[in-house]
Input
Amino acid sequence: MCIQKNIESYWQNANERYNETIQKELNGVQKEAWVQLIEENRPPGDRLEVLDIGTGPGFFPLLLSEMGHHVTAIDCTESMLETARNNVRTAGFDVSFHLMDAHKLTFKENTFDLILTRNVTWLLYDPTAAYQAWYRVLKRGGRLLIFDANYYLWMYDNKWREEFERDNEEAEKVGFKKFDKADQEKGDRIAGELFFSNVRRPQWDIPVLLNIGFGNILVDADVGEKIQSEVSMVRYRTMPPFMIRAEKTETKYLYGMKR
Output
């Protein structure tokens, strides 16, 4: 899959930048906000088997290990995994890391109590196939937590683009560090090929998850105030982060919405 290779190439060189971001979060007020959000939405249990999909520099492994859970983490780029390994090693935790495509999980069925993914699903080239794979490895009663945003809808909506560009300018005034121009242009080119770039979410995800077999679905359309820094709230004002919580359950039709 050509698009997957392009994605892997792009993120292979982004580990240092994103490591700086997660370190700020883990040492700031966002850490406790994330802990509370996860505690409110995770399945019951003292020590969960957790799968972090698209771990990057290891934000969730560090957070969930400190919360007392056992974490397995995957990423499609070795540089991200190496950074995550170093971060976890320094913190003294035991995490199992794997180089793996999120669409093609090699774990056994019914392995994990909780699957989390943050800022990853927008990159999926076949989200339905990925969600099916995630459902397979989740235990009955286990939960999936998706955190993401509509990062590239501005490319297809002129009004949205104007607001996005305005937010960029305001974010720079309060400390947002612009991406390297070449990296930004490369990222935009890749985004033009992505499935989710021109799809409104989380509206798209709900019927797909239900059809796969997930139930007890809860959507929070904007969790930005809970987990974002002041700078990020300005930068991503037109694309607030949402949360989808879905459960592997016998009941397929339950769905709720928070605003």
About this structure: The beta strands are 49-53, 70-75, 96-99, 112-118, 138-148, 214-220, 242-248, 255-258.
